Amino acid sequence: MFAVVDLETNGLRPRSDRIVEVAVCQLDAQAVLERSYATLVNPGGEVGRTDIHGIRPEDVRGAPNFAEVAPQLWELLRGRVLVAHPASFDIPFLASELRRCGAMLPTEAVLCTGELARAYMLGGQSRYQRGWRLQDCCRMAGIRIEGAHHALGDATATAKLLHYMGQRYGAQIWSAEVELAGLQRWAPAPPGPSADPWTREQAAAPATRRRPRWLRLGF
Fold first, then answer.
1. Measured between alpha carbons, how far is 167 from 204 in angstroms, rounded to an integer?
2. What domains appear along the chain, each with residue ranges and CATH number?
3. The pLDDT of residue 143
4. Alpha-carbon gap, residue 94 to 22, rounded angstroms
5. Cis peptide leading into 86, omega within 30 of 0?
6. H or E element: which one contains 112?
């Protein structure tokens, strides 16, 4: 039903900057977590603000590039309402990366938990006012973020926030997006080899414990 997405990137411009980590949490119709996926992504260049996301150049050396994870990501997203906080940042980045792989991401059914929080938890305040960052919204909902600025940590927190708002305000807050998701047409997954995820834990492991990338890809 829902696919909650969070990204870490090496910049702020979807057309030219690249994803360095991606996480997807699949949720059911009640916004209950079903499964999670996360991987570091080799951007083929700089990793960006290590002081913010904590990802170092050496962490992504063993990671797949985006084209190698695109087929698996596509299947995780297919047919679902896309959710992010804020969606105006994550979804255009994801769409740009998929476009480079020859795939057009359907974006009619998108939910922004930031916009939902602004409308329901914060009394309809202007988007230019402070207080609807993920950390602020989770604090109001009593949700603890395990690993802020880690894609999986933020995606999991966003999933919990969506569930909280659904329980408190009712499923009508996402009914329009669910209907749109059922009408969207998804093309086949982008072609290409599919690579295993490369997590932060794997990147942090001693070099002697790491599997060479060619072994992970099955060559």
1. 37
2. 2-216 (3.30.420.10)
3. 97
4. 9
5. yes
6. strand 110-112
Taking only the tens place, the pLDDT of each residue in 17-62 is: 999 999 999 999 999 999 999 999 999 999 999 999 999 999 999 9
Q: State the Cα–Cα distance between residues 58 and 185, nearest whole angstrom.
A: 39
4 bridge partner residues: 25, 83
73-102: per-residue pLDDT in tens? 999 999 999 999 999 999 999 999 999 999
Amino acid identity, position 107: T
Residue whose structure tokens are 């063993």: 62
Token pair in block for residue 161:
């926030």
Q: Cβ of 126: how many Cβ atoms within 10 Å? A: 8
Is-contact 165 121, C-beta < 8 A? yes
Task: Give kind and range of the element (H or E) at residue 108.
Answer: none
pLDDT of residue 214: 45
Give me the amino acid identity at 106.
Answer: P
Q: Which helix (H) or strand (E) holds 121?
A: none
Sign of torsion over alpha carbons 39, 40, 42, 47 = positive
Q: What is the pTM of this model?
A: 0.91
Instruction: Give the C-alpha separation, 93 to 7, whole Å.
Output: 8
DSSP string of 8-52, one letter each residue? EESSS-TTT--EEEEEEEEE-TT--EEEEEEEE---SS----HHH
pLDDT of residue 194 exceeding 90, the answer is no
